[in-house]
Amino acid sequence: MSEKSIDHKGFFEHQLEVWPQARAAYNALRQSRTRRLKLGECEVILQHNPGRVLSSTAKNDASSIAKRKCFLCRDARPKEQALLEIDGYELLVNPYPIFPLHFTIASAKHEPQMVTNRLNDLVKWTERLDGMTVFYNGAQCGASAPDHMHFQAAPSDMFPLWQWIESGHHPDAPAYIVCKSAEEANWEMNRIKRDSDKEPNVNILARKSNQDCTIVIVPRRQHRPDCYGTDGENCVLVS
User: Fold this and answer.
1) In this structure, what is the dihedral angle of CA atoms 100, 207, 78, 146, given to the nearest 10 degrees?
2) Which of 12, 54, 60, 204 has the fewest CB atoms lying closer than 10 Å?
3) CB 129, CB 163: distance < 8 Å
4) Terminal CA-to-CA distance of the chain, rounded, Å?
5) Chain center to CA of 197
6) What angle do the packed helices 182-191 and 119-128 form, to 10 degrees?
7) Cβ atoms within 10 A of the Cβ of 179, count?
8) Which H or E element spans position 217?
């Protein structure tokens, strides 16, 4: 454990003790079903997790966002939801988990979901959270709160992507860019095609291994797959 590390596991365990909603969500996650799917030499994990339906179906168009309170702002959170505030961010237990240890790292201020000029912050959080991958979903790339800047974090061994990189076996898709520093990642971000003055549509993952940090940028063509908005039997709410 480095000097910068925080006791995130102790924080998590205490939250489940005092916050019934979070405790119920993580208990429900244990009942979710998974299936491993081979993509050539690689493997992905499919998860059927009904407890995520509120987040997976959240509307994030401008009109819908304007009508709701921002659930990442401090005054709109449940009273049981504690925080650890560090350098302008608040570490929160995610009450709609995909992973058995799942955090949200929200900006203390209400500001748009944009990673521009924040990749150094992403790296710093990998140093604070031992064994965790810190990730960013762009405003049109899976973020259920595109109006409030936030990262998320989960155990690195839950991400098949790191196994692909370590083994040298890569699926034909998705395409991704591997960087060794925030500076390199910023340079790559500037090379990715974007619409007007917006940042490129990407997902970003980062982890610390020994003294090295690896940052992976996954460019996105569109927000959700075509099947997501299909009516009837062909509809798949995949996130």
Assistant:
1) -120
2) 54
3) no
4) 33
5) 24
6) 140
7) 20
8) strand 212-219
User: How far apart are alpha carbons 164 and 237 in whole angstroms?
Assistant: 26
Contact 199, 189 (CB under 8 A): yes
Whole-model pTM?
0.90
For residue 213, give both structure tokens: 């940090």
* Closest to 204 measured CA to CA, from 132, 152, 128: 152
How is residue 190 written in tokens?
A: 């500037």
164: which 2 tokens? 């692909």
Give the phi and the psi of residue 37 in degrees, each rounded to 5.
-125, 125
pLDDT confidence of residue 174 = 64
Each residue's pLDDT tens digit, 134-193: 999 999 888 888 999 999 999 999 999 998 888 887 777 668 899 999 999 999 999 987
At 71, the amino acid letter reads F
In sequence order, what are the residues at sequence separation of 6 or more whose Cβ sits closer than 8 angstroms to the Cβ of residue 37?
43, 44, 45, 46
What distance in Å separates the CA atoms of residue 135 and residue 72, rounded to the nearest whole number?
Answer: 17
Residue with tokens 């799942």: 102
| Bridge partner list, 214 | 207
